[in-house]
Specification:
By secondary structure, the chain is an all-alpha fold. The chain is 53% helix and 0% strand.
C-alpha cells in the first residue's frame, strides 16, 4: 500500500507562536504517545475548517487574523 502523499507548507512563525505550539504539543502528549508540533498544526486546521463549515466562530477568527500576532507579515 503506497504512502499517503502529503503537501509541504513552510510558514514563518514568531517565537511566541512556536512556544504555543510546543506547549500545546506537550499538553496533548501522553506517556504512550508524543504529539508533534506538525500534528498540532494539522489538528488546528481541521478544527478551524470544521467550525467554519458549521458557521461557527467566523467573526472570532476574522478578529484574530486582524491582530498582529497572527498576521502574515
Amino acid at each position: 500500500m503506497p504512502k499517503k502523499e502529503r503537501k509541504r507548507l513552510q510558514v514563518v512563525i514568531s517565537e511566541e507562536q512556536d512556544a504555543l505550539l510546543t506547549r500545546t504539543a506537550y499538553e496533548l502528549s501522553s506517556p504512550e504517545r508524543l504529539i508533534s508540533k506538525s500534528e498540532v498544526v494539522r489538528l488546528a486546521i481541521e478544527k478551524i475548517a470544521r467550525e467554519l463549515g458549521e458557521g461557527e466562530h467566523i467573526d472570532e477568527y476574522r478578529t484574530l487574523l486582524d491582530t498582529e500576532n497572527v498576521s502574515d507579515e
